[in-house]
Amino acid sequence: PVYQTNNYGFRGSYLAMPKPVNEYRIFLVGSSTTEGLYLDEKDALHHVLESDMNLRKPEEREFKVYNAGRSGHHSDDHISLLAHRIMQLEPDMVILLCGINDLLAAINRYDYLHYRNDAEPFSLRTGLKMLVTEFQIPRRLFWLLKNVKVTSNQDVMEGVPLESDFERKVAVCNAMPLADGEPRLDLESYKKNLITIVGMARAHRVQLILMTQPDSWE
What we know:
The protein is of the alpha/beta class. The protein has 9 helices and 4 strands; from the N terminus they run E-H-H-E-H-E-H-H-H-H-H-H-E. A 4-stranded parallel β-sheet has the order 2-1-3-4, sandwiched between helices.
């Protein structure tokens, strides 16, 4: 499949700034279901929606749909994306598809504030990890060596599924003991994040559509 990004790094066509007066600008925000990593451009959500809307448009109007979906994102990531990258691009509408990642996060005690209550005790191992990941020289050397490697389009497409951690997640789920009760859910942070997104849309006079997946696997 063909995966393309525009001049702002979103899936979709060229994004003009300032916004043309006849353009109705829509952003899709969400995680993997929205991004459609394995879908060709012509089959991806943003292209299908844009094509369908422009078939029905009045002559003086042009619809543009940009896909800002990112695999693995939670509602706190959506807030950051909207605040720092999207609202200044003058959207008329934001379609937010979220829910499944926050549900899994609630079950797995995800820390929305990104605190580390379970931090490892300091040891030689943690010291080496800190040296490699937190200091600029090792990080720059890593990216330099990574960018030196020449990869073809076929290498990239074959490498994506190899980097998935789906098998590890399945193993973790299978290792959990069976329980009669319902899983622990803490949805208060998710609720607050949705209210925040609604407030941002109102403040910028952006029409907001909230969606969630009608179903999942099986």
